[in-house]
Amino acid sequence: MIKDIVNYGDQALLLNFGNEISKEINKEVIFYFQKLSKLILENNINSIENVTPSYNKLSIQFNLLEISEKKIKEIIDQIKYEKVEVEDNSRLIKIPISYDEKFAIDLERLSKQTNISKEEIIETHLKTKFYVYMIGFMPGFPYMGDLHKKIYSKRLETPRIEIDDGSVIVAEQFCAIYPYKSPGGWNIIGKTPFKLFDQNKLSPNLINPGDEVIFEKITLEEFKKIKNDQ
Amino acid sequence: MISKIKFLEPGMITTIQDNGIKHKQHIGISKGGAAIQSLIKIGNALVDNKDHWSIEFIYKGPKIKIEEGQCIVSISGNVDFDITKNQINEKGKCFRSYLLNKNDEININHTIQSVYGYISFGGSLKLKKIFNSLSCNPRSKIGSNEGSKIKKNDILEIENNNNIKEYKLGIEPEIPITKTIRVLEGPQFNYFSKKSIKEFFKENYEVTNNTDKMGMRLLGKKIENIVSSNIKSEAIIKGAIQVPADGQPIILLTDHQTIGGYPKIAVVISADIEILSQIIPKNKIKFKKVNLKEAYVSLDIKNKIINKIINSKIKVNE
Known about the structure:
The complex is a heterodimer.
Chain A: E1 4-7, E2 12-16, H1 23-42, E3 48-53, E4 57-62, H2 69-78, E5 92-97, H3 107-114, H4 118-127, E6 130-135, E7 142-145, E8 160-163, E9 167-171, E10 174-177, E11 182-184, E12 187-191, E13 212-217, H5 220-229
Parallel strand pairs in A: 5-13
Antiparallel strand pairs in A: 1-2, 2-4, 3-4, 6-7, 6-13, 8-11, 9-10, 9-12
Chain B: E1 2-9, E2 15-17, H1 37-46, E3 54-58, E4 63-68, E5 71-76, E6 79-85, E7 88-91, E8 97-100, E9 105-111, E10 116-121, E11 123-125, E12 136-137, E13 142-143, E14 155-160, E15 167-169, E16 180-185, H2 194-200, E17 205-211, E18 215-219, E19 234-235, E20 240-242, E21 250-252, E22 259-260, E23 264-268, H3 273-277, E24 284-289, H4 292-311, E25 313-315
Parallel strand pairs in B: 16-24
Antiparallel strand pairs in B: 1-4, 1-14, 2-3, 3-10, 4-9, 5-8, 5-10, 6-7, 6-9, 11-14, 12-13, 15-25, 16-23, 17-18, 17-24, 18-21, 19-22, 20-21, 20-23
């Protein structure tokens, strides 16, 4: 249920679905996002320029010269549902990961910080079925959760200036993958040879909001082979 | 007819831009596009171009040469430039179009007391669109031209629209002098102390050098947060004014990131975004709080003025 709707500047509305970060609330945000996107596409509503889901909110950006806020609210009123059909949302995506020490540069420190062996951290990471809360910050960057409490970690005090693309990173309850080289302050625990974002592809991003992700361990040799075959 | 434009010098940050990329913010791509939409609208009207695209430059622009064919060209903004026709050099005039022939050149020296300027051409750009747009964001490597800015000796091919008429404007756009930016309350307006909110609308804020097409960092009276300096990350929009823990505001501009986790004290009204984007560092700005109705009316007025300017177009030799 939408808890409240507020104006966000003069060309956007912000719909609030709840106050915490939870899968349940986020699934409703994404369910609503998909319904609205379908409505926009079917009715060719070009005056709505972007619909952006986040943990617990959905923003609707529109062109004020072409559509009024009142009309946007009428479109919102058209979206009715009894319950959130979660199964429509998720795809399961398998991401290969190498935990080779060449890539997993923060694993040792993480192990000391949490008092859990490197092997156990890896095992816990592999056992987790991640849920993709949202994509953002940079093109294709997935915010995934939730990690097991025992391996929660803090961000680095001083962010690194450059992190390789494909780096798999963790901080607090979240895990993410860098689609591009970037500065960053999360802990690096491995690397995937997969390309997360390619603007020339029909579906440019490998991972979508609402997807589920599991990691599959590969060796350094397998990593190199997949990388070369791309 | 095809004409070819060669970039003898690329300029500082020169990119291909149009109305931007729509419907991709949910995968991390903000709309982007030309920072000053009204200038590419006027620029394209002067070259009779229905295809709404232009070359955007920042401060120091490119030096271009017609390598092949002929082409109608216009420069929009507050720009100092030279034009060389038939080997005769003259100072160029903004807001009029020029018919250029093979080997003619335009040299954009610099923008005057502003950030952005535009070159518009009378034809369609022969370049693959990405996400149905020609816009390009070199920082995230997204968009046409492999997401890259224009490099030295790059050549663009233009399919001419066969217009060879030169136009000027009967009414020229006014150069804005105001440094007062009108804003609406942001979604986290009540995260800040009453005292700080009062000061936010009273004090001057300096535009720092740490400003680009993505955002504008300001320096001024520290804004005190009384709730939390982090929020659950939510969508960012152009004009949102976020306040991180250090209390110094950052205004997100055209190429803003798609989501952000800092509370937003205010949002710049759409009618004032272009004026704000053109303000160069070291200038001081002031914020004025308005209501939604004023924001709507202001945008409507601004749009009517632009249409009036476009409709004042006349042929140069008449």
